[in-house]
Design goal:
It is a single chain. The protein is an all-alpha fold. The chain has one domain (3-61). Helices cover 80% and strands 0% of the residues. The chain has helices at 3-30, 38-61. The two termini are 14 Å apart.
């Protein structure tokens, strides 16, 4: 994979990461300062896991061997 291809993929991953962050923020804003209910917390946990996967994919792009 060329550096240009890596850059495009990295940019795509950043956009995905930002979208996931926005979804998490939306869920937390629904709670309006109180604790998240079980369903909301489950959704946030799932989204956080997805975010971790995106970060791992981005890190793999720039691993050196």
């Amino acid at each position: 994979m060329t550096n240009d291809e890596k850059a495009l993929q990295y940019h795509s991953l950043l956009l995905t990461h930002d979208k996931i962050d926005a979804k998490i923020a939306d869920i937390k804003s629904e709670a309006a300062g109180s604790d998240l209910n079980k369903e909301q917390q489950s959704k946030v946990n799932d989204l956080e896991f997805q975010k971790d996967q995106v970060v791992a994919q981005a890190q793999q792009l720039f691993e050196t061997y």
